[in-house]
Amino acid sequence: MIRKLILFVSLLLLFSCEERIFLESTPDIVLKDGVYVLDASGYEFTKAVLSDSLRVYELVSCGEAAQEPAVLFNGTGGYYSLYLLNGADTVFAKSTYVGPVNGDQNLKVTALDVKQGDCFIIEPPGEKPSVIDGGYGSLGYYDWQGGGEQILSDRLKEKGLTGIKYIIETHHDTDHYGGLLDITSDALFSFEAYLDNASPALPGCGDTLRFGGGVNGVILRYGDVAGDTLTTENDRSVCLKLIYGDLDMIFTGDIG
Q1: Digit-coded pLDDT (tens) for 56-74
Q2: Considering the entire predicted model, what is its pTM?
Q3: Homologous superfamily of 107-251 in CATH?
Q4: Yes or no: domain 2-101 corresponds to CATH 1.10.3470
Q5: pLDDT confidence tier of residue 227, bands split at 50, 70 and 90
Q6: What span, in angstroms and rounded, lies between the C-alpha atoms of 21 and 24?
Q7: How does DSSP assign 57-122, residue by residue?
Q8: Domain limits of the chain?
Q9: 14-18, 36-40, 219-223, 245-249: least confident range
């Protein structure tokens, strides 16, 4: 009994309503400016809990005294169970990844809402960023296609990220390369390599693309499907697994 009490003793993170990040998504623990915070996504709850097989961390809800949020921990990252409780009821549960926080040693991956298509910004620690796909960009002409907004280009400029290492076009459909065209046609940006599913510079399947800062991308597949003479452009997508420490992320383009 004493051991169980010890597990619940520390309130590791304190959150206030002002520090919550509300997104059109399910609740999660997210990294924001080097600090892990709770995105409750509008759920009503009285307590939030993180747990793994050894530890249980109780997160204080908005009804508690407001305090500055703290770094979750600086040790080894891993997957935790996140629970939102409203009284005695569990109103939401999911598995969430929490990694170590070491200042500028963090990998940042941003998924932009480009309305239609993909768009990711990859920022390795201490290295140039790379981008994967860009949505329709200025080529979009309906609201659901981004309305012609240069969403990726504008975000990169906003963040001061004009020197880019890799521009990766997973496949040649407008909702993936349009926003990349905005970058390559803007003299403000520079980049080391433009890689698509027909690029000779793209590593072979099973080989590694090095983003720098300890971040690597293993190429899983791209191009024509073996034995299929009618491979669609979607199924020719570049697929890669991004690896940083014990975190893996898979980017699939539009494969079926």
Answers
A1: 777 654 444 334 334 344 4
A2: 0.65
A3: Ribonuclease Z/Hydroxyacylglutathione hydrolase-like (3.60.15.10)
A4: no
A5: confident
A6: 10
A7: EEEE-TTSPP-------SS--EEEEEEEEETTEEEEEEEEEE----GGG--EEEE---SSS-EEEE
A8: 2-101, 107-251
A9: 14-18
